[in-house]
């Protein structure tokens, strides 16, 4: 049976969260400031920042990598949003996903000059967006570390490993985008010496 257009429509608002509660995927309702909500909300934020990065002119191979990462982050978010991943048959990020990030890191680093100083986030608009994504990824990782401590038997550790490696990848990727675009990294050389009095 085909649904007509009116039957198929779903309203975006439900009013069920107006009192500050929301539901985990096939799970209990919790406060919107619950650590699990904070975690997958931050992963969603990271995904959105990567969408901004992809909207800027970047090479096709980099755009493809970022699209894969965005798909991975939907998987991560779904995992963080449920307490029953096995029953719901939710795919989990794992060793193969982490290895893919490491392979990308190694490939990008082959073309980059050796890193001898701290660098300031920035450069091209695309690279600056990727640096921004990296910092959001680190925040997501910190929240997941809290989840591992709060729910030690829920298997969140692999999510933390993935996010850790993802931030490493995004740092290298921002440098690679600048390098390909002929934009030099801005080096941080520390605080200037105080003048003698």
Automatic annotation (TrEMBL):
<dbReference type="InterPro" id="IPR036451">
    <property type="entry name" value="CblAdoTrfase-like_sf"/>
</dbReference>
<dbReference type="InterPro" id="IPR029499">
    <property type="entry name" value="PduO-typ"/>
</dbReference>
<keyword id="KW-0547">Nucleotide-binding</keyword>
<dbReference type="InterPro" id="IPR016030">
    <property type="entry name" value="CblAdoTrfase-like"/>
</dbReference>
<protein>
    <recommendedName>
        <fullName>Corrinoid adenosyltransferase</fullName>
        <ecNumber>2.5.1.17</ecNumber>
    </recommendedName>
</protein>
<dbReference type="GO" id="GO:0005524">
    <property type="term" value="F:ATP binding"/>
</dbReference>
<keyword id="KW-0963">Cytoplasm</keyword>
<keyword id="KW-0067">ATP-binding</keyword>
<comment type="similarity">
    <text>Belongs to the Cob(I)alamin adenosyltransferase family.</text>
</comment>
<dbReference type="GO" id="GO:0008817">
    <property type="term" value="F:corrinoid adenosyltransferase activity"/>
</dbReference>
<comment type="pathway">
    <text>Cofactor biosynthesis; adenosylcobalamin biosynthesis; adenosylcobalamin from cob(II)yrinate a,c-diamide: step 2/7.</text>
</comment>
<dbReference type="GO" id="GO:0005737">
    <property type="term" value="C:cytoplasm"/>
</dbReference>
<dbReference type="Pfam" id="PF01923">
    <property type="entry name" value="Cob_adeno_trans"/>
</dbReference>
<dbReference type="GO" id="GO:0009236">
    <property type="term" value="P:cobalamin biosynthetic process"/>
</dbReference>
<keyword id="KW-0808">Transferase</keyword>
<feature type="domain" description="Cobalamin adenosyltransferase-like">
    <location>
        <begin position="12"/>
        <end position="176"/>
    </location>
</feature>
<keyword id="KW-0169">Cobalamin biosynthesis</keyword>
